Structure formats: C-alpha cells, structure tokens
Amino acid sequence: MIGRISGRLDWRGPDHVLIDVRGVGYIVHVSERTLAGLPAVGEAVSLYTDLLVREDLLQLFGFPTMLEKEWHKLLMTVQGVGAKASMAILGALGAEGVGRAITLGDARAVQAAPGVGPKLAQRVILELKAKAPGVMASGAGLAAAAVAEDLVAEPVAAAPKTPARADEGSARRAAASADALSALVNLGYGQGDAAQAVAVVAGDLPEADAAALIRAALKRLAPK
After folding, report:
1. pTM higher than 0.70, yes or no?
2. Number of folded domains that form the chain
3. In this structure, is residue 154 part of a structural domain?
4. For the domain that residue 184 is a member of, what is the CATH number?
5. How does pLDDT run across 144-199, given as a tens digit for each residue?
6. Where do the H-state alpha helices sit in the chain?
7. Is the domain of 70 the same as that of 116?
C-alpha cells in the first residue's frame, strides 16, 4: 500500500497531478481544493495517498492531511459513494467542513458537492453521523499536512518506567475534554457554550473518551 508520496510536481491536470519520485512518475488524483493548494510545477510536493484497486484499474488519490484521507475512506463506505463522489464532497467542503456537515446533519452542505443528489447526501448523513465524532476526536493528530522532506529521527533511549501515578486518570480525562472542546468549537459553537456542555457531560461520564464526550455534548447543545 502506498501511503504517502513525496517528490517533484511535474504536471498539473484538471483533477490529477504527476509527481516525480526519483525518476518514477506517479499520477495522483486530487480534489479541486487540494489542487488549488499545491505548489507550482517543478517544486517539491507531498501528499498522503489511498490506492484504489480494481480488476482493470489502479488509481492513487492524494490528500494534504491524514484527516482528509480518513474522511475519504469513511465516505467510501457509504453505499453509492465512489471515489469520484468522495473527492467531490471533500473538494467542496474540505475535511473540517465534511465533519461539521455530517455531525450537524446538514445534508444540504453535502449536496452542494457536484454530482451529489439529495438522497445520497441524506444517506451520507445517516450512515456516518454516529462515526463522525470519533474522526473529529482524532482530528488534531490527523490534521498535520504532509511535508515534502523526509525527517529521520534518531533513536531515543527508553525512559525508565515509573510506577503508575494517581493523576494519570485525571490527565486522560483532561485530554479527552480538551479534544472534545476543540471539535465543538470547530463545528461553530461558541467557546463558552461548548466549554459548559463539555464540563457537564464530562462530570456525568468521567470515563468517557473524546468521541463519547462530543456525542453527549452535541445532544446537550441541540435546540430544544
């Protein structure tokens, strides 16, 4: 599986690019949004990739972040959403926009993508709404853009193990609350309202992870 490509951008097409990697050219299909954000021909470029394998076809699809790649893979699980429709949705909304639309049940936003009708947009919402908080909870770690330079880290000696501390649970709960708050703010909720909702549900669900906190907070924030 080819998970990332880094090289020189040799050519730009209407929906794909050619990336030269040490003398080998790879055709990578991208959304309009991704294409607009790429550098000029001749410059270094890097994209996370997903390989579509069929009996008579091999296609690489490129994404600027792992978050967008994860949304592409999730969109493809919806019946009727192929690679073309997934790239159209991501091109119209971007990764964060897709998460916002699905989490809030905004089928009209999904329908704004070229070639996506109302029935398909509604199906995307229905099938992925329960899964969206999980992707959003991991969004901070997945949103980093691919870089053209490969960084090689030197091995680090393992730190000596220390006994488990009583505050490890508190740190984990604080991290889950912070991730949930960040996701809600990205959805457009005010900082104060989001923080209050997260605080309340975190008190009710002390062992919940970020995804569960997001779901519970969204229910609390939903119009009565």
Report:
1. yes
2. 3
3. no
4. 1.10.8
5. 666 665 433 344 444 455 445 546 766 777 788 888 888 888 777 887 788 878 88
6. 32-37, 66-75, 83-103, 107-111, 118-128, 132-137, 139-142, 168-186, 191-204, 210-221
7. yes
